[in-house]
Amino acid sequence: MKKKTSKKVLTAKTPPPSGEVGRGPYSFFADVFDVVRQIPKGKVTSYGAVAAYLGTKLSARMVGWAMNAAHTAKPKVPAQRVVNRNGMLTGKHHFATPTAMEELLKKDGVTVKNDTVVDFKKIFWDPSEALAL
DNA sequence: CTCCTGACTCAGC
DNA sequence: GGCTGAGCCAGGA
């Protein structure tokens, strides 16, 4: 079974996005920003988690793409708290400096080693659970 | 208007 | 158990 791919669920998950749909008449970017901004300090989440919350889990790429705009969005969005499913700082290269991301995370109390969040699973913040629609 | 790229993820070999 | 291919949506040229 290769590692714990179980995670949550792939096929039979995705809660009914019925109630959240009407909550964001804005672009999909606004939704991402809103969720990311609600990430508690010292916690991190993954693109897929946000994507799943928005109902676009099939397109986690768009979440990352939205983060690109987050860099210019206001107020600033803690994009450093958003990493890939492995906890690796994939987007650190897009920050002002290649070390800005891990620096910010460290300031938040998150341990980063080798461009990867330590105990990522432990400090993982699930929007679907936190926001609980 | 059409083609390509992109900070991901899953399934297949 | 690691690498490759394909899918997704949106924005830029």
3D architecture notes:
With 133 residues, this protein is mainly alpha-helical. It contains six helices and four strands. The strands form two sheets. Strands 1-2 form a two-stranded parallel sheet. Strands 3-4 form a two-stranded antiparallel sheet. A hairpin with a 2-residue loop joins β3 and β4. The relative contact order is 0.17. It binds a DNA duplex (13 and 13 nucleotides) through α3, α4 and β2.
Tell me the layout of helices and strands.
Blueprint: H1 18-21, H2 28-37, E1 45-46, H3 47-54, H4 60-70, E2 82-83, H5 100-107, E3 112-113, E4 116-117, H6 127-130
Parallel strand pairs: 1-2
Antiparallel strand pairs: 3-4
Helix pairs in contact: 2-4, 3-4
This protein binds a DNA duplex (13 and 13 nucleotides) through residues 2-3, 5, 10, 27-29, 46-48, 51, 56-69, 79, 82-85, 89-95.
Q: Given the helix and strand composition, which structural class is it?
A: mainly alpha
Proportion of residues in β-strands: 5-15%
Please tally the β strands and state the result: 4
Mean pLDDT: 79
Q: Stretches where pLDDT falls below 50 for ≥5 residues?
A: 1-25
* Lateral arrangement of strands in the main beta sheet: 1-2
Number of DSSP helical runs: 6
Order of helical and strand elements: HHEHHEHEEH
Radius of gyration: 14 Å
Separation of termini?
A: 32 Å
Q: What does the largest sheet look like? A: 2 strands, parallel
Overall shape: it is globular
The helix content is 25-40%
